[in-house]
Amino acid sequence: MLHYHTVPVTQFQQNCSLVWCDQTMEAAVIDPGGDLEQIGWEIERLGLTLKAIWLTHAHIDHAGGTGELAEKMQLPIIGPQEGDQFWIDGLPQQSQMFGFPPVQPFTPTRWLHDGDTVTIGQETLNVRHCPGHTPGHVVFHAPQIDRCFVGDVLFAGSIGRTDFPQGNHQQLIDSITQRLWPMGDQTVFIPGHGPESTFGRERKMNPYVGGT
To answer: Where is the signal peptide, in residue numbers (predicted)?
Structure first.
């Protein structure tokens, strides 16, 4: 079975998630934005073997620790989609702007595209490309446990910002309604910030996409 544990990191309280297969105890880390010591403690506490980094998108609070962690542990960097290359290129400027530690540059080992899959141990998750917050944003759907790791596409009661470079509000709404909603009302999503919710609840209650 697939398990996960969420670790809020950085001053932005970004929900970094550890996901692992309980048959192998092999794990991936989704969006290691920073606080790598804290992430390391959790990996050790849970008895996991970290095998990969998965990125939803390349904003500093989600990707800031990626280069350092990948080099330190010799991990592949999986995702996001190529549309976020300019955000990766701009991570040093982002780190200065928001007061983050210096960022180690990186190049993803594998870009992700809509319909791809990622595997950890004996567990497979589906990838959907959900642009709007950033052009290369992806989400990771685990239908076997009715969970989806959505980065900054959707939040409990809100949606991702689209006022950053190459953000697009209509694209974001389309990503939510056309790619997230079909996963089912029962699906619990883990957002990039704040508490979990379900797609069904947000379809009814979210003021930005409610009733869609």
So the answer is: none
Q: How far apart are CA 35 and CA 157, in angstroms?
A: 27
Which alpha helices (DSSP H) does the chain contain, by range?
36-46, 60-63, 66-73, 85-89, 91-98, 169-175, 199-205
Residue 162 belongs to domain spanning: 2-205
Q: Are strands 147-151 and 188-191 parallel, antiparallel or unpaired?
A: parallel
- Our count of domains for the chain comes to 1
Q: Give the pLDDT confidence of 170-193 residue by residue, as tens digits.
A: 999 999 999 999 999 999 999 999
Please report whether residue 212 resides in a domain: no
List all residues 6 or more positions away from 89 whose beta carbon is below 8 Å from its beta carbon: none
Return the CATH number at 60: 3.60.15.10
E strand or H helix at 5, and its extent? Answer: strand 2-9
Tell me, yes or no, whether 28 lies in a domain.
Answer: yes
- Is there a domain that residue 210 lies in? no
Q: Is 154 helix (H, G, I), strand (E, B) or coil?
A: strand
Cβ neighbours of 74 (radius 10 Å)? 6
Percent of the chain whose pLDDT exceeds 90:
97
CB contact set of 154 (below 8 Å; sequence gap of 6+): 160, 176, 180, 189, 191, 202, 206, 209
Q: Indicate whether 211 belongs to any domain.
A: no
**How confident is the model over 83-107, as pLDDT tens digits?**
999 999 999 999 999 999 999 999 9
